[in-house]
């Protein structure tokens, strides 16, 4: 039974009575799974209950168990990699051990955030393998094991890696390769307005910068005024190293612009490559919109014309007065 990637399902009405604890004291070995770095605590597993989809078990009984780790502190759509991976994979193993069917295997292609960890299920093709090991230079921890499989957690993945799961069945050595691709998710979204105060009808610029992301392929940056989409751009390119993604939009100020916040959303969609959906939003920016101010140059010209007209009229009146005086 394959163990691949899955987006979490809606919580069901019942499920295992697991609980998250701030500390891990008092739990028996094998009944806890510690969370990812930064999440201080562990999950206490109630192994006497069947596994149902729930907020603590983000996978459904679809006939094919699937692994999709997410952060315990962040919604699934915000961070598709994190502490859930260990828990989900462990429960998958508990659910399926001793089934007597074909051994399930982990996904061969994995997307992992730079510096994050990944749970690897190393499963042999026979029921009684010899020398079942995971070959890697990275730090790893054995989470659990049975005769046919071992569950490892691999730490600090900072570049693309190949992990080798090797074992011997009936005297023949076999190897399975796990290809890990590192990605750099959008951690910051920076919105800049060229002006904080503009007059109606004035041109201004909105710039959104997403620093150090890779791959650019699948990254969409959207500029918003309130909930209205002003402009969006989907990037292309398969560069493996992080780059800044910049979107610039020129627009004219309207009176209603001052009634809404401007913001920028960055969404990285890695689902087609075995990953998840990462979503970040900038801090909102406000634009002050003023009524247009008369052009100073035009005011000067109008003033000069008025003065000339006054002088001309004065001159004409003076001439008429002199003519009348000379006639009398």
3D architecture notes:
With 328 residues, the protein is mainly beta. It has two domains: 19-183, Immunoglobulin-like; 190-290, Immunoglobulin-like (Sandwich). The protein is 14% helix and 38% strand. The protein contains two helices and 20 strands. The chain starts with 18 loop residues before the first strand and ends with a helix. The model is unreliable at 1-105 (pLDDT under 50). This is Intercellular adhesion molecule N-terminal domain-containing protein. Belongs to the immunoglobulin superfamily. ICAM family. It is a single-pass type I membrane protein. InterPro entries: ICAM_N, ICAM_VCAM, ICAM_VCAM_N, Ig-like_dom_sf, Ig-like_fold.
What's the helix and strand layout?
Layout: E1 19-21, E2 32-34, E3 42-44, H1 84-96, E4 109-113, E5 116-123, E6 130-135, E7 140-145, E8 149-157, E9 161-169, E10 172-183, E11 190-193, E12 197-199, E13 203-213, E14 219-225, E15 228-234, E16 243-252, E17 261-269, E18 277-281, E19 285-286, E20 288-290, H2 296-327
Parallel strand pairs: 4-10, 12-20
Antiparallel strand pairs: 1-3, 2-3, 5-8, 6-9, 7-8, 9-10, 11-13, 13-16, 14-15, 14-17, 17-18, 17-19
Which keywords apply here?
328 residues, Immunoglobulin-like, disordered N terminus, 38% strand, 2 helices, 5-stranded antiparallel β-sheet, 4-stranded mixed β-sheet, rod-shaped, 2 domains, single chain, mainly beta
Kindly state the number of beta strands: 20
Range of helix content: 10-25%
How many structural domains does the protein architecture include?
A: 2
Mind telling me the CATH class of the largest domain? Mainly Beta
How many H/I helices? Answer: 2
* Uncertain residue ranges: 1-105
Question: What fraction of residues sit in β-strands?
Answer: 35-45%
Main beta-sheet annotation: 5 strands, antiparallel
- CATH architecture of the largest domain, please? Sandwich
Order of helices and strands: EEEHEEEEEEEEEEEEEEEEEH
Terminal CA distance: 124 Å
Derived from helix and strand composition plus strand pairing, the structural class reads mainly beta
């Amino acid at each position: 039974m394959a163990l691949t990637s899955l987006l979490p399902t809606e919580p069901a009405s019942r499920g295992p009575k697991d609980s998250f604890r701030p500390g891990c004291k008092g739990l028996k070995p094998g009944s806890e799974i510690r969370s990812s770095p930064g999440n201080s605590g562990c999950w206490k597993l109630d192994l006497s209950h069947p596994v149902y989809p729930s907020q603590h078990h983000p996978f459904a009984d679809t006939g094919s168990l699937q692994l999709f780790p997410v952060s315990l502190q962040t919604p699934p759509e915000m961070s598709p990699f994190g502490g859930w991976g260990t828990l989900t994979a462990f429960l998958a193993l508990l659910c399926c051990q001793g089934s007597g069917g074909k051994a399930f295997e982990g996904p061969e292609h994995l997307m992992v955030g730079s510096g994050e960890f990944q749970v690897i299920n190393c499963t042999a093709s026979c029921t009684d393998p010899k020398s079942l090991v995971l070959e890697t230079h990275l730090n790893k921890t054995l989470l659990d094991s049975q005769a046919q499989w071992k569950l490892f957690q691999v730490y600090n993945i900072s570049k693309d890696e190949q992990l080798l799961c090797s074992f011997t069945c009936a005297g023949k050595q076999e190897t399975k390769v796990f290809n890990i691709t590192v990605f750099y998710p959008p951690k910051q979204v920076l919105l800049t307005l060229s002006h904080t105060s503009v007059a109606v009808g004035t041109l201004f610029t909105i710039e959104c910068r997403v620093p150090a992301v890779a791959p650019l392929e699948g990254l969409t940056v959207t500029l918003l005024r309130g909930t209205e989409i002003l402009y969006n751009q989907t990037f292309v390119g398969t560069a493996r190293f992080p780059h800044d993604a910049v979107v610039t939009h020129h627009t004219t100020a309207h009176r209603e612009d001052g009634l809404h916040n401007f913001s920028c959303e960055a969404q990285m969609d890695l689902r087609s490559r075995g990953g998840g959906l990462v979503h970040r939003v900038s801090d909102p920016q406000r634009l002050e919109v003023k009524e247009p101010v008369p052009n100073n140059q035009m005011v000067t010209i109008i003033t000069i014309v008025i003065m000339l007209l006054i002088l001309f009229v004065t001159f004409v009146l003076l001439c008429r007065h002199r003519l009348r005086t000379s006639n009398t």
